[in-house]
Amino acid sequence: METKTISARKHIIKYGTILGLIYVAYGIMMYSTDNTISRNWVHTTLDISVRFGIIMYGVYKYANNGFLKLKSALKIGMGIALISAIISIIWLVIKETVIEPDLANKIMKTGRDGIIRRNPSITPEELHEKLAFSQMFNSIYFRITFDLIDKVLFNSIFVLIAGLILTKKKDL
What is the rounded distance in angstroms from the CA atom of residue 48 to the CA atom of residue 33? Predict the structure, then answer.
């Protein structure tokens, strides 16, 4: 019986692009419903489920006749995570520089309003200090870095789980 080997590069690009385009579609949905600033547990649960599902399916589809080494699973999964992270970062840059260049100011205003609402007796100096601190984390460079770390680090956890679940060895 002949076994068909699957090109790892094509597989990584295919499923990484699928996951990346899902990130973009999710970002467009969040933007169109004006939820780019606020997120809740439903958004987080959906995000985690989609990430894990696509990575698990991508690693599963790569398994040759059900046999897969952990090293191969990690290679495929991390490739998928990296490709999808690059697509997600491209979307982030386009969204924040072309589509909505004023997003950083909206985030700062929302943060300022939240600080005042939680602590109405805050002095202007304390408010300015807190806003200056949060502005450091509000730059596009920080958000790109955080998005890359988020996508690669958390997806690597999903890759490891998928690899451990799907790893099978051939009987000799």
Answer: 20
